[in-house]
Amino acid sequence: QVQLAESGGGLVQAGGSLRLSCEASGYTFSRSALGWFRQAPGREREFVATINWSGSSTVYADSVKGRFTISRDNAKKTVYLQMNSLKPEDTAVYYCAAGPGGPGGVGASWYDYWGQGTQVTVSS
Question: In this structure, what DSSP letter does residue 65 have?
């Protein structure tokens, strides 16, 4: 059974930082592309970042480029999202997702497995 468990969310002031983690189990993590998405109240789920199986290729949404960094540790079966210079508009539930091999997709439908999400709240 595939499981993805996010952690690291919380409340932070604007300009602050958080690091999200997502630990996976139940499948071949090292061959899977991984992504982070977020969903704010009343809005659709949106792409944040993706990373390929080896970590050599990453893609970011324009809204987070230069502030967020996605990385992975295949030995620990964990993907990370380092979030710096946080803004109130970054407030959302953040989800990690696992997909097939390859470069990673920017659409939610590309991913097969999802975590339960972790809340990030940025105060102004």
Answer: T
